[in-house]
Specification:
UDP N-Acetylglucosamine Acyltransferase, domain 1, seven-stranded mixed sheet, 2 domains, globular, alpha/beta
């Protein structure tokens, strides 16, 4: 009987090397939520999530089948300083200063950081607090990403800018409807040939067939 892929295996490479880890089974922080089969090109993913403080309560949410390069950092809202005064120095965290900590409404909190499914983030990129990254996005190495990135876009740079869409609008809508990442492991295993094919017209026809949209 064929052995199916197992997202709960920390070191999943066929080579046996421990240079890549599935993230989900390693997470201990309840405010970091990661989908099945998303991997990090390294170990101890939680160390890549910085300034993530319980008193703020923001979450990092990452979808399924994401590919996160070595050294990618997710900077959370705890990195932000109050900017309403003439100084941004956080006196309240240092010994000897009597200033009280500001209330959260005085800090530039940008909400949860959300990464969609099947997102590829190039190594050493920086994801800023509150970023919303759509399904199927590709992020170039060493990019600085904030704000909202539309599904199936390619972005790069500092700040990250749109390079191009990966596919035409019809293909993007078909993929967002198919949501292949939500299918069973058995179904995904049978779909890998289609998902990896560069014959995009054939892929489009197959997805339409699967969705019952054949003409």
């Amino acid at each position: 009987m064929k052995t199916l892929p197992n997202w709960d295996e920390i070191f999943p490479l066929k080579s046996g090397l421990e240079s890549v880890t599935y993230i989900k089974p390693t997470i201990k922080n309840k405010n970091i939520i990661v989908g099945e089969f998303s991997y990090y090109a390294g170990q101890d993913f939680e160390r890549q999530v910085t300034h993530h403080y319980d008193f703020i309560g923001d979450r990092l949410i990452i979808g399924k089948f994401c590919q996160i390069g070595f050294g990618v950092e997710f900077m959370m809202n705890g990195a932000n300083h109050a900017m309403g005064g003439v100084s941004t120095f956080p006196f309240y965290i240092f010994k000897g200063f009597s200033q009280d900590a500001p209330s959260l409404d005085k800090l530039p909190i940008k909400g949860d950081t959300v990464v969609g499914n099947d997102v590829w983030i190039g190594q050493r990129s920086l994801i800023l607090p509150g970023a919303k990254i759509g399904d199927g996005v590709i992020i170039g190495a060493s990019s600085v990403v904030g704000g909202e990135i539309p599904p199936y876009s390619i972005v790069a740079g500092n700040p990250a800018r749109l390079v191009r869409k990966r596919f035409d609008d019809e293909m993007i809508n078909l993929l967002l409807t198919l949501k292949w990442w939500d299918k069973s492991v058995e179904e995904i295993e049978n779909l890998t040939g289609i998902l990896s094919s560069d014959d995009l017209q054939k892929v489009k026809e197959k997805i339409k067939e699967m969705l019952g949209k054949t003409e």
